[in-house]
Structures are given as structure tokens and as C-alpha cells.
Write a structure and sequence with these properties.
This protein is mainly α. The chain is built from three helices and no strands. The longest helix has 26 residues.
Length: about 70
């Protein structure tokens, strides 16, 4: 999931919790669905940021290449 999809989940969940006042069937609670969407969206944002920070690490190898080995002698 990208950052845009997770922010969209948070926004849709917030609208369902705070913006809607709909009475539906007794087995369907839109507030609970909204809270679940916001929680999953927040978790998705954290995981996305974690994977973005891991992708930016740079690995430097100090071992000489084959060409550098031949130039020494």
C-alpha cells in the first residue's frame, strides 16, 4: 500500500465515524467500520514510512575490484 491509499483509508474512516449519522441494520455499525479503516490506514502509513526509510540506506563495499588488483603490480 502506498502513502496515498493509506491516507485515503484514514479519510474515509474519519468521514464514516464523524460525518455520517445513518441508522442502518442493527448488525452493521458504520462507526466501527470507520474506526477499523482509520486504524488500518494508520498502520499502513507506519509500515510505508518504515519501508521507505529502509530503501534509502546506502551500502559501500571497500573491497578492491579485479582491475584495481592488477594495477597494483
Amino acid at each position: 500500500m502506498g502513502i496515498g491509499a493509506t491516507l485515503m483509508m484514514i479519510a474515509v474512516g474519519a468521514v464514516m465515524v464523524f460525518g455520517l449519522d445513518v441508522t442502518g441494520p442493527s448488525w452493521l455499525d458504520l462507526d466501527v467500520i470507520g474506526w477499523i479503516l482509520m486504524a488500518v490506514g494508520a498502520l499502513g502509513v507506519l509500515l510505508t514510512l518504515l519501508f521507505w526509510s529502509r530503501r534509502r540506506t546506502v551500502v559501500v563495499h571497500d573491497e578492491p575490484t579485479v582491475i584495481e588488483e592488477h594495477r597494483r603490480y
